[in-house]
Write a structure and sequence with these properties.
Blueprint (H helix, E strand, L loop, with lengths): L1 H24 L1 H31 L2 H14 L3 H37 L7 H13 L1 H17 L4 H27 L5 H38 L10 H39 L4 H30 L3 H9 L3 H28 L1 H8 L4 H10 L2 H17 L4 H25 L1 H26 L5 H28 L8 H25 L2 H6 L1 H9 L5
Helix pairs in contact: 1-7, 1-10, 2-4, 2-5, 2-6, 2-7, 2-8, 2-9, 2-10, 3-4, 3-6, 3-9, 4-5, 4-6, 4-9, 5-8, 6-8, 7-8, 9-10, 9-16, 10-12, 10-14, 10-15, 11-12, 11-15, 12-15, 12-18, 13-14, 13-19, 14-17, 15-17, 16-17, 18-19
Subcellular location: Cell membrane
Pfam family, one: Polysacc_synt
Organism: Cytobacillus dafuensis
Length: 538
């Protein structure tokens, strides 16, 4: 059973990673199709949509899967089926209500997002928000089905449906926007509306794959009911109470980043206009922050948290068992893995900001400066996600709400003053301050309730910082030499610069990590297994 569970977890993780990679890569052709204005419009729609979808579904697959697997282990299969049947009705209603709320509040959100001097922009933003709102009808319903499959240790359907949903969505985004602009002579607003409506089309594709899996496996789920003990009769009220307890922490973690972006959506352009920027330039800067650079900054965050969050179940077990030694060891490893993977990535991203931005989009002084400033914030994104997960592991998730609210309050209070003082970078600094406050609160709670000493993490962090500094020196030297005869403003030459510099940087960093055996302290036997697969060690 344990090998089946591990295999299922691997499949689900792989599906999630593939889905995220596709979600990152499509922004390159999409940017070249719709430009800065289209990117800004797309972001205006997707930030509120992400918040609505997070509230409607965040944690539902995991919560439902935990509930069903719990009662399946007790051979009370009918309890899970009862939840599933009533849940489909509830999630359908939730989806429809979320759709109606976003659809009818779209003009209000648009009014708060754009300037009254921008003419038709309020109407444009309203149109694209309404286009994406249709996805809310399907996604909550789909998330419950995913949770049902996962509760039966069947991870394949969830993984496949995620990938299919993403492929269908991206295909529709790119093809739809291209056809509207190049064959139908449509406007940017129409092209972006088609692109945001793709979320609904993608959801239909994901749902279709889940229904196909349901049709193929329904006989197996029905057979389980024949072995039901039937000794427990849990009311729907108690069921949903348990589900909400499971899901609530994920809602707050899931909406953290979109809420910070929503503050920018409501304040950034107006603040930039107040210091003399024209609307179009302010809108372009907004697109650079919320769409273009944000997509790049999230890459190291996804890599680091994917590794570190796998340790959280071990943290939970050690905390419940009151095994202080094991708990400290797991926390040490988690924090070190996050820093080990994130710090060199963000330093490299910041150092190579110009060729990387050119490679993904176009050469832009603003894009380069914003990416250079924004990249280090990725460390804060990663540490917030991990510390919030640890709080759940030690059963103190209620403090996640407090830390998030404090961080948001600081972002909201400082965003406009800092934008007026520092222009575009002011928004990034306000985000960094807000996340730093949230993380410090989370760390204080971890130290207080888990009795966790930070001494070892601090010492190892100095080592990681040293290796990163050596990487910075080596890579920076190579970068300076390469830019003597290669231009970071050219797509192909930027690609060469990134490949060579990234190779040199990774080589220096991992050489130091192997020589000091730091990488073995962090990843243990996984390192040898990886080297054997790569045929670097016998």
């Amino acid at each position: 059973m344990s090998s089946k569970l591990l295999r299922g977890t691997f499949i689900l993780t792989l599906g999630t990673i593939i889905s995220k990679i596709l979600g990152l890569l499509y922004v390159i052709p999409f940017y070249h199709i719709v430009g800065d204005k289209g990117n800004a419009l797309y972001s205006f729609a997707y930030v509120p949509y992400t918040i609505f979808i997070s509230i409607a579904t965040a944690g539902i697959p995991l919560a439902v899967s935990k509930f069903i697997s719990k009662y399946n282990a007790l051979e009370e299969y009918a309890v899970g089926r009862k939840l599933f049947k009533s849940g489909l009705i509830i999630m359908t209603c939730t989806g429809v209500l979320s759709f109606l709320a976003l659809y009818f509040f779209a003009p209000v959100i648009a009014e708060m997002s754009t300037s009254s001097e921008a003419g038709t922009n309020v109407k444009d933003v309203t149109t694209v928000i309404r286009a994406v709102s249709f996805a809310l009808i399907v996604v909550p319903f789909m998330s419950l089905i995913r949770g049902f499959f996962q509760g039966h240790q069947s991870m394949g359907p969830s993984a496949v449906s995620q990938v299919i949903e993403q492929i269908v969505r991206i295909t529709f985004v790119l093809a739809g926007a291209f056809v509207v602009l190049n064959f139908m002579n449509g406007t940017i607003t129409q092209a972006v509306s088609v692109a945001t409506f793709a979320a609904f089309i993608g959801a239909i594709g994901g749902l279709a794959s889940l229904l196909w899996y349901w049709y193929k496996r329904k006989f197996y789920f029905d057979d389980l009911l024949l072995y039901d003990k039937g000794t427990m009769d849990i009311s729907l009220k108690d069921m949903y109470k348990e589900i909400i307890i499971y899901a609530a922490p994920f809602v707050f973690v899931g909406i953290a980043n979109p809420l910070f972006q929503l503050v920018d959506q409501f304040t950034f352009i107006k603040a930039m206009q107040s210091i003399g920027f024209e609307y179009d330039k302010a809108e372009s800067a907004y697109a650079v922050i919320t769409m273009q650079t944000h997509k790049l900054v999230i890459i190291p965050v996804s890599l680091a948290t994917a590794f570190s969050l796998t340790l959280v179940p071990s943290i939970t077990k050690a905390f419940v068992d009151l095994d202080r030694s094991s708990l400290n060891r797991q926390l040490n490893q988690t924090f070190q893995v996050v820093l080990f993977l994130t710090l060199p990535a963000v330093v490299g991203l910041s150092m190579l900001a110009e060729p990387i931005f050119t490679l993904f989009y176009d050469h832009s002084e603003l894009g380069t400066e914003v990416l250079r400033t924004y990249a280090p914030v990725a460390i804060l994104f990663a540490f917030f996600l991990v510390t919030a997960a640890i709080l759940q592991g030690i059963n103190e998730q209620r403090f996640t709400v407090l830390s998030l609210l404090v961080g948001l309050l600081l972002k909201l209070s400082l965003n406009i003053p800092l934008i007026k003082l520092m222009e575009t970078e002011g928004s990034i600094v306000a985000t960094a301050i807000g996340y730093t406050a949230s993380i410090l609160i989370n760390l204080f709670v971890i130290k207080t309730f888990a009795k966790y000493p930070f001494r070892l993490v601090f010492r190892r962090s100095l080592l990681i910082v040293l290796f990163t500094f050596l990487m910075f020196i080596g890579t920076g030297t190579v970068y300076k030499i390469l830019t003597l005869f290669l231009s970071p403003a050219s797509d192909f030459q930027a690609l060469l610069i990134v490949i060579i510099c990234a190779g040199v940087g990774a080589g220096i960093y991992f050489y130091c990590s192997f020589k000091t055996r730091l990488i073995y302290f962090l990843f243990g036997e996984k390192v040898d297994r990886a080297l054997k697969k790569l045929k670097l060690r016998s």
